[in-house]
Amino acid sequence: MNSSANTKERILTAAEALFAQRGFEGASLRQLTAAAGVNLAAVNYHFGSKDNLVEEVFKRRLDQLNARRLAALRLISGQPDATLEDVLGAFIRPALDLSHDGGGGLFMRVLARAFAEHDDSLRKFLSDNYGHVMRQFTTEFARMLPHLSKEELYWRIDLVTGALTHAMSGFGIIQRKSDVSEVTHREQTAAHLIRFAAAGLSAP
Amino acid sequence: MNSSANTKERILTAAEALFAQRGFEGASLRQLTAAAGVNLAAVNYHFGSKDNLVEEVFKRRLDQLNARRLAALRLISGQPDATLEDVLGAFIRPALDLSHDGGGGLFMRVLARAFAEHDDSLRKFLSDNYGHVMRQFTTEFARMLPHLSKEELYWRIDLVTGALTHAMSGFGIIQRKSDVSEVTHREQTAAHLIRFAAAGLSAP
DNA sequence: TGTGAAATCAAACGATCGTTTGAGCATACG
DNA sequence: CGTATGCTCAAACGATCGTTTGATTTCACA
């Protein structure tokens, strides 16, 4: 029972990388277990099925992402002088942090794939585990943008979500130049995303 | 040779719908040919392979989409008083038209999937055949936004692309209310997307 | 040290995948 | 009319898929 935790982690990490690279259907359990260095039957033994493995891959990262986002939001939700940029920062910075530490750099790609998939069960799983976070952020956005109707607000949050998911899935990510540190580059990226999203959200 | 054109079209239409619904790997040729009402072997006979079919699905829609976009861009590229909103309109409106007529409503979902896939051969195909369109629009955007550095411009165009692809893939599409016509609703949607994108692009 | 549960392993299961085959059908042309 | 050509069809190909099985190994604990 000691090495089982190790095996499960190895499978989750290999699965995350392969799902990001080849998709949920494109990555086979044989490729996956070979990359993880474990036996083929280990997936079904530890996770029950491939579908369950997919959900566990999401759970591992989303749990900490949600926790960090809500913690960041709590810091500013009470303050009357909080700005739209602050709320966006609470949403964006935890995702960028996740991309650069904890080996979760590939997770945003997996998330982008999940958005592109219109598979109902996966959508429902994401909505169940993720919905309350978006609801809290929506409330804060509504407070910052009182001139927007509810319909307009939903529209723009959806557009922001699309832009950020697209960008953070590593598509157009601009490479860090060798003369800037990793932390600096991350902060520049965050500033870039926030500036764009804030301008789009507060359009007249 | 008469019915072949009919069969090819039936396959392309069924493939577009199934690719949008289940993805390129998730949609099998057996589901696909059954939905099209043709024999299983018809795909390999008419298209050579499944990969070729995928490319043909893109070709059919992207050829007309690019033609319309470039035609719209040509109308304003010479005019000195053209606005950023005009350029965005030339980019967005043809895509919305495609979504609502010609049965291409599902194509934007297919395109969103292609963006999520990091498959190199598919990316190369899209870049080779349709990169020149993005290059022309980028030139116009640069003309409208002279205060942006080249790096910032690329960043923001990428973010706009993500937002529009996400929105037009039918994710958060707000349903048309029964008391507005289809044309009116389309124009409202276009205005919404353009307003958001213009504000994001011209952020300070 | 002996024992039983947990974990790993090679092997095989049936199902489904993309593709190929060769016979049969249709139709246009000499 | 005969024939060549383009097309459709059922059937089968080998490969690979997710999953299951039963034996074997590992290891904490009595």
Automatic annotation (TrEMBL), chains A, B:
GO molecular function, one term: DNA-binding transcription factor activity
DNA-binding region per Swiss-Prot/TrEMBL record: 28-47
Domain called HTH tetR-type: residue spans: 5-65
SUPFAM superfamilies hit by this protein: Homeodomain-like (SSF46689), Tetracyclin repressor-like, C-terminal domain (SSF48498)
Pfam families reported for this sequence: TetR_C_30, TetR_N
Keywords: DNA-binding
Protein name in the entry: TetR/AcrR family transcriptional regulator
Origin species: Dyella dinghuensis
Lineage: Bacteria, Pseudomonadati, Pseudomonadota, Gammaproteobacteria, Lysobacterales
